[in-house]
């Protein structure tokens, strides 16, 4: 077995395990934790399209989560349009907003871009908190929107058990990971990579850096908004502070940076490392030591950035490669090139 | 509209705005030299507030006397943070133009500091007592001026004057300016850029401490008090031009005026939306801000 085959086998085993996991994990609590973990991995993978490949730091992706959540919910509550269609509608609106925001801001330097996306979230949150209606759309101000239980089942995107949510988000996650993989090998991916590392040089070689960044932003907004609709259907209650917060935006950036931004596996790795930390430390310290879980979170962030500024995907990848090489047949010397091939961009 | 009331609001806006300027001053200073947005700035203000608060609580001294202790403590705190946590990343990411990793580290520091305060002191809102400045008003005819805010205004002026003198007249100040203009050229001239980074970060943190002390007499102290100031400081420094000291003051006054005049014409919560709207407009149309230089870093 060559290292490449070994990797493919392992990946297949992981995916199959993920599909079979609900058979073993019966507890709704743990299933919910897994769902949230996949949801964050999904959102961060979407974030990674612009935050990782394009080399900027968006700190406002919760705007798109909010757009997705509010649009699918409003369509369902007001006109009975299925959240499945609302998801797409939210995605399209978010893509439009992503374009409008990305077009002027993506030309800015890193710090300005980060700050403007931050201001954008805060601005949108203030607006949503102050409006009961935006045109025909019901926002209900700071009280948010409550989705009453429906017996429409699949059409209503409401399920009595956690399993359907689990499979939906798992398929979404695999889909977005495959999409990222495809993009990283496409012309767009190479343009982004070149533009992220050496914008001037890339421009001189005829790469339209600004355009490829905007395209990445639009795709990223669309995909993130879909996660917002999913989140709304999962929790059945949305309000500005749950979906339009800087906290959520920051967490996506943290997961990506700890995992390794610019790597396809980075966001997923980051979510698997950081989400359990925040979930379990909240459970264990939540009452006795308030704030402890965020201290742990902050310390992890600082330590990882100090010792692995490019995220943990790099050392994990190296470890994985050496294992793969051990299992590989001796005469196969492609190990080295295969090992580094899933790296898209050096990060930061 | 009664002119006196309008004047009253304008004065309040300018006073509070100058304090916002002071709050943003440390941020703009650090950015000017290191080209790093310090997301922990609000937390530094919170630390300054808590240090000032405890000093007054235990000694009963006038709040402003706490400055004698707060300024050096905060300076060395900032110096240490820069030396131990930020410098290694600068070295590791030497060839990266935009130090995004540093932003994340400062965010980590923010999380740790705010939650450490929460863990140690609890979520309670604390008001300074004994507070010799509480509710004191200066009467000018029909206009009332809050004494703590007026002192804050004076402190802002004094801090700016002090900084200006330091930057123009001292060797270290000149070295800081040299490093902020061109760190490579400054290094070649024999300036130790790492030491200058540490000092600049220390000064920025000390200024955040001064802002904290100024705020304490009329503002509650609690662990997440820095967060609104954090976001506000970002708005102010971008408005005034990242890295510009007069820009920070002007940006602060603009925000102060919007906040004090806005509620006359609309619901108070909407003024916040105006602030962000203005912020985004400046970013789109004049990203270098009102006083900022064209960024070529």
TrEMBL record, chain A:
Membrane topology is: Multi-pass membrane protein
Cellular component terms (Gene Ontology): plasma membrane
> What are the recorded GO MF terms, alphabetically?
branched-chain amino acid transmembrane transporter activity
**What keywords tag this UniProt record?**
Cell membrane, Membrane, Transmembrane, Transmembrane helix
The principal localisation class reads membrane
Where in the cell?
Cell membrane
The yes or no answer to whether the keyword NADP is present is: no
Pfam families found in the cross-reference section? BPD_transp_2 (PF02653)
* Record-annotated membrane-spanning stretches: 50-77, 84-102, 165-183, 214-240, 252-274, 286-307
Q: Could you identify this protein by its name?
A: Branched-chain amino acid ABC transporter permease
